[in-house]
Amino acid sequence: MSFENLPKGSILYIESTDPLAMDPANNQFVYGGATFTAPGQKYSTAVASRNILAYSDKLNTKFRRVSEHNRSEFSISTNRIERQERMANGFLRKYFVADKKQFSVSWDMLPSFRNESADGAWAAEDLKSFYESTSGKTSFRIRINPGPFDQVLNLEQSGGVLQDDYTYTVIFTSCNFTVVKRGIQAYWNVSITMEEV
Asked: Residue 103: beta bridge partners?
């Protein structure tokens, strides 16, 4: 099995450790002190390395790609924080405080594990695990890739102006997981909304 190598990478990256990182030799991951084998396809060490899924990254904090598998549109809206006041002479004054972004995205029929996704990036169980972790209950950083930027040079490396322009500190405002199909591996409908802190 191989994954689709997307030239522009994923649109969403979440900064985190990777608790469900799979060992490519045997398709296993460690969770809660126990070792599990992910159902479905196995992928080779070469494919895992190309898709930045190496098992050695399990404990390192870095920006993790979130799958593009059956992703809907990625909505970015702005919440303008301001106060408007009509003065005695009829003039309208506006006091601008800040613009804060809100990000919404959903997936239909997203596989449970990354070994069944089209691109080998974080799938439903990864997102669920992150949401339920300590990191998902506080603020965390995301990076978006809205244009034709090289994912490795401009988004996944440290430093750089481009990264700063597209990096946001956010919190979850809603997150929904629905199992829509069971079998060798479950498929989920997932929707998340995040708001800039």
From this structure: 76, 194
What secondary structure letter does DSSP report for 25?
T
Q: Provide the residue type at 161 as one letter.
A: V
Cα separation of 75 and 114, whole Å?
23
Token pair recorded at residue 188: 């989920």
Q: Tokens for 58? A: 């399990």
Predicted TM-score (pTM) of the model is 0.85
Structure tokens at 166: 């597209």
Which of 13, 30, 15, 18 has its CA nearest to residue 59?
Answer: 18
Q: What is the mean pLDDT of each run of 10 residues along the chain (197 residues)?
A: 62 89 77 82 70 66 90 95 91 92 97 86 93 95 82 64 83 97 92 97
Closest to 3 in 3D by CA, of 117, 126, 111? 117
Cα–Cα nearest to 21, from 57, 45, 46: 57
